[in-house]
Amino acid sequence: MVDRLPSGLTAGVAVAASSANLGPGFDSLGLALGLYDEVFVETADSGLVVQVEGEGAGQVPLTSDHLVIQGIRRALNELGLDVPGLVVRCRNAIPHQRGLGSSASAVVAGLAAVNGLVAQLDRPVLSEARLVQLASEFEGHPDNAAAAVMGGAVVSWTASTTDGQPEYSAAPLRLHPDIHLFPAIPELRSSTAETRMLLPDQVSHSDARFNLSRAALLVVALAERPDLLLVATEDVLHQPQRAAAQPESAQLLQLLRQNGIAAVLSGAGPAVIALSTAAELPAEVRESPEARAFTMTEMQVGDGVRWNSGVVVPG
Length: 315
Hints:
The protein is of the alpha+beta class. The chain has ten helices and 13 strands. Its EC number is 2.7.1.39.
């Protein structure tokens, strides 16, 4: 039997942007960034109202196709619940189609909003592990989703259950306090689905071995040895293959690394993220022609998704 939530319940969610891969950790390593979307949800007697301001306004669907709504519906189904109507207001700060995990964040926001709603009825909420699983099912890999749910740096992986379905998991990774994050965000947009098509179905044994060594080293560099970040962020499996489609990003990436700064494509790009033990990037990098197409500022590590019950929904 499916229970219906009463009208008048409200919840608010804040969910961080994320950077996936971090160079060699393809579909496995992720990092939450201190840039947040806010979502406010209220149950209603009927209908669906979706409002969006900020990033994506006028571009994303205001229907049940909206990813926040899909996340809400998935969480309700998971908990055996339904709702006759919804009012959803999104205040978006995470740029869309830049490689900063906006899609994963939207899904996580919808899932977590349901936790905020049902908590008011003294019902069980979705656990962190379950949030990771459900959000990752939308993405097909857990790196962005896990970072958005858990915050900080994460190592994620996929296993198969006895019925052959993917099981997504993640573990937190301590980020060394000396590491500063400098995302470089362009106006240019890119589709993750399209850039994935640039990747070959098979890679050589030597390339696989190379990335395995760098991914293992990157875990050490992020947690204990930031002096190893430059070599640890080397990659041969996906960034070179995407370079031709994102020449500005490839040029900035090359410039940063030539200046001894560990820089990687953020997710599928076109954003780039630099990881440095210096408090600021060199002036010759910030003022270079390659950097002019990007907004480059230091950003804190993002927190895990936060949900609150009974908030005042803005008009």
